[in-house]
Design brief:
By secondary structure, the protein is α+β, with helices and mostly antiparallel strands. It has one domain: Cyclic Phosphodiesterase, Chain: A (Alpha-Beta Complex). 25% of the residues lie in helices and 34% in strands. It has a 4-stranded antiparallel β-sheet. Strands 5-4-3-6 form a 4-stranded antiparallel β-sheet, with helices on both faces.
């Protein structure tokens, strides 16, 4: 009896997207300088607050944009103030939000409803922040935390006017696909 040879068709990987807010702080150079040497994503992405964390999905850009517009279309622009130390899992260090926190949490929660519900990771509490550094060695956290104090003592202010759907092109390259505006 002749055996059949199996043939596999390789499918392209599903697009990996996220939804973020790119603030424009007057004193953003302070963040840029620190991230430039301590955050592996600094060259790939400007300082940002991640509202929907990276996920792989068959959702098209138009479907994702329509969902995002539905969530944000009646949301007024609002002030955000970032200040103070934030950290997670003794690995990530950042600057936390002081003003606009509740609104960003609510936007995050609403974006994760409907077509994005399956991507919510309830084991992580969402705390709006901008990542400044990622420790590469376990013993690096304390010294990096002390160094980050230079940045986290600063106050950063902006108005959230829009969010951006981004797509991972390569490991170190993210494309800005679509900007979704809040109500003006």
């Amino acid at each position: 009896m002749a055996s059949k040879k199996l043939t596999y068709i390789l499918r392209p990987t599903l697009p990996r997207r996220a939804i973020v807010w790119f603030p424009q702080f007057a004193n953003q150079k302070v963040i840029d300088r620190f991230r430039g040497t301590h955050d592996p994503l600094a060259q790939a992405l400007a300082p940002h607050v991640t509202l929907v964390f990276p996920f792989n999905s068959r959702l098209t850009l138009d479907q994702l944009a329509a969902h995002s517009q539905k969530v944000l279309r009646l949301w007024p622009c609002f002030p955000v103030v970032m200040h103070g130390f934030w950290s997670a899992q003794n690995e990530f260090i950042g600057v936390g939000s002081q003003v606009g926190t509740d609104a960003m949490i609510e936007i995050h929660d609403r974006l994760y409803r409907g077509p994005l519900a399956e991507f919510l990771r309830p084991e992580f509490d969402f705390t709006p922040h901008i990542t400044l550094a990622k420790t590469l060695q376990p013993n690096q956290f304390d010294s990096l935390s002390r160094a980050a104090a230079i940045v986290t003592r600063e106050t950063f202010r902006d108005l959230m006017r829009s969010v951006t759907i981004i797509r991972e092109e390569t490991e170190n390259e993210w494309l800005h696909e679509r900007e979704i505006f809040l109500q003006h």
